[in-house]
Amino acid sequence: MLLRDVHFAVRTWRRRRTVAAIAIATIAIGIAAATSIYSVVDGVLLRPVALPQPGRLIAIWQTYPSWKGNAISFRHVMPRSPNTRPSR
User: Fold this and answer.
1) Does pTM top 0.70 for this prediction?
2) Euclidean distance between the first and final Cα of the chain, in Å?
3) Which pLDDT value is given to residue 1?
4) Domain count, the chain
5) CA torsion sign, 38 to 44 to 45 to 48?
6) CB atoms within 10 A of CB 20
7) Contact yes or no for 54/40 (Cβ under 8 A)
8) Residue 17: in which H helix or E strand, if any?
9) What is the residue-wise DSSP string for 18-82?
10) Which of 21, 44, 46, 66 has the fewest Cβ atoms within 10 angstroms?
11) Which domain, by its residues, includes 11?
12) Residue 26 within a domain
C-alpha cells in the first residue's frame, strides 16, 4: 500500500513540476527556519552566560505608575561625574 502511494506521489510530481518545486521549497524553508530559531534559543537561553562571575549580574529597572511599561535610561543608572554635561 505504501509503495503504491509513493509511486503515485512521484508520478504526480513528475507531471506537476511547479507544485513539486513549491512543496520542496516550502519544506526546505520550514527546516531552515526551525534550525535558525533553535540555534538562537540554544545560544541565548539554554547555554550558561560566558562571564567569569555570572552570579553577579543584576537587572535594574524603574517603574512609574503613569507609564504602561517598564523603562529606564542609562543616565538614571550611572552616577554623573562633575565634568559631565546634562543630556537632553
Assistant:
1) no
2) 74
3) 84
4) 1
5) positive
6) 15
7) no
8) helix 17-41
9) HHHHHHHHHHHHHHHHHHHHHHHHIIIIISPP-SS-GGG--------TTSSS----HHHHSPPPT
10) 66
11) 2-77
12) yes
Residue 72 predicted with pLDDT over 70: no
Nearest in space to 57 (alpha carbons), one of 48, 65, 66: 48
Question: Does residue 86 lie in a domain region?
Answer: no
Q: Considering the domain boundaries, does residue 57 fall inside one? A: yes
Q: Which three cell numbers stand for residue 61?
A: 529597572
pLDDT of residue 40: 93
Closest CA to 10 of 27, 32, 2: 2
In tens, the pLDDT along 40-58 reads 999 888 887 777 887 777 7
Confidence at residue 22, expressed as pLDDT on a 0 to 100 scale: 94
Q: Could you tell me the pLDDT band of residue 5, with boundaries at 50, 70 and 90? A: very high
